[in-house]
Specification:
By secondary structure, this protein is an all-alpha fold. It is 81% helix and 0% strand.
């Protein structure tokens, strides 16, 4: 009995377990949420995810600009209370999570460069400093709200329905959920609809691949690191795009 108790204590105190704790994820993403909300309040935002969450909340009679952010906080707090998790936090865990999220960003950035997406993004964007700052906040918001919708909400709902209710194999459900949400995530990046001719397979497959990757990060490393990875990736791409724009202007 002592060995079992010790083993359980070690597993729940491990870093791998800490990154999945809702309270840890909430504290990790809270500064990102506040930063995005401040930027959106000052610069405005055309980001679809918080707007769509806002429309969903309006359907239920709630219509304040801060409610999409409050929804994320509420969901994580409900998860924390349902799990009856402890309220203690280890600051070192949060610092390591930042470093881990940055490391998970690297393969996505490499994939972007290999797909030659950076130059097309630079050609379609402006080099103005105001636009660049808006892109930074937009990328930050995308990391938060898209991970909330396509990972925390949809994958969690799939696991709840098919694993907890229907008792299907957890691993199979997780893989299917990641693949389906990755396709939905990719389609979400075509808000005006897909063209009837000349389907943009390259862009669709890139976003779907990114969705699979982020889905895997979410399932194995937790919501906080998935948000950090997505947000840091968007930040790096915005910086590289800005540099590419200035390089084009210099020539």
């Amino acid at each position: 009995m002592a060995n079992a108790s010790t083993s359980r204590k070690v597993s729940t105190d491990s870093y791998a377990h800490q990154t999945h704790r809702p309270l840890v994820c909430l504290v990790f993403v809270a500064p990102l949420i506040l930063l995005f909300q401040a930027g959106a309040a000052y610069y405005g935002t055309s980001l679809l995810a918080p707007r769509d969450l806002g429309r969903l909340l309006e359907y239920f009679g709630a219509s304040a600009a801060y409610l999409p952010a409050l929804l994320i906080v509420t969901v994580l707090m409900i998860q924390h209370l349902v799990k009856r998790d402890r309220w203690t936090l280890r600051p070192a865990v949060l610092l390591v999570m930042v470093g881990e999220a940055i490391l998970w960003t690297v393969p996505l950035v490499v994939a972007n460069l290999l797909a030659d997406r950076l130059m097309s993004q630079a050609a379609a964007s402006s080099a103005e400093s105001t636009r660049f700052i808006q892109d930074i906040f937009k990328g930050l918001g995308a990391g938060i709200y898209e991970e909330f919708i396509f990972r925390l909400a949809l994958i969690s709902l799939a696991m709840l329905l098919f694993v907890d209710v229907l008792s299907l194999p957890k691993e199979a459900v997780a893989i299917c959920a990641i693949l389906v949400t990755a396709c939905l995530f990719s389609l979400y990046h075509f808000p005006t609809g897909l063209p009837l001719e000349g389907f943009p397979w390259k862009s669709f497959l890139f976003y779907a691949m990114a969705g699979v990757y982020l889905g895997g990060v979410y399932v194995t490393r937790g919501f906080g690191i998935a948000v950090g990875t997505h947000a840091f990736y968007n930040l790096v791409i915005a910086l590289l795009t800005q540099f590419a724009n200035h390089g084009q202007l210099a020539h």
